[in-house]
Write the structure tokens for this entry.
Amino acid sequence: MATIRQDNDTKVFLVTGATGAIGKAIAQRLADIEGSEVVLVCRDKLKAEKAVNEIIGITNNPRVRSELADLGRHQDIRELAGRWTGPLHALVNNAACTPRDRQETPEGIELQFATNVLGYFWMTDEFTEILKTSAPARVVNVASYWAGGLDLNDLEFKRRNYDNDKAYRQSKQADRMLSAAFAEKLKPFQGAGTPVWLATRPIGKETTGRYFGHLAETNCPFSQDKLAVNALYDACSNV
């Protein structure tokens, strides 16, 4: 899609998983901010067009558009970053899936791990230089209180019996940990209300690598385990 013209006051937000309930709510609230441009990253063209039209209709902000990419596939994300023009002031990683049965991407990666974890990793990694040149910019990873059970030796449930709930909890723990991992490498980078708050308010620029819930910082023991955080980062880097 054509890039919308930006002026010096425009703040550009990119939201993944933007046709889902939380993703669409995040995108809508960002689009409601004066001077914002919001880009929805979606897999399905028809759903993307419907979401864009809905958000424009509700917010009267014409600077809402979509980009197509499968967040479980590195090449799609690489191509998305490659065709990006202009600044990006906030990347909101939100895309997630929870298939009931174990599935793999065409590249042979377990689908929840690919989408919910590697998607966050690849988006942040591929957009790093764009975010740096757009500074002040930030990354917001949407995680969950429902997190835990991560097995660094079996991230893709190749040895364990696959359970979609366990896989989801593991992925959300990993997302929290990746926030800490990238914070170490990308300082000062970092449900709908908290991501929008972090993406737009000074708190998101002043703190990095922390876990927030209900508009407040929350203790996250997963992110404090430096050895595990670095091991997860290395595992994602080597996929």
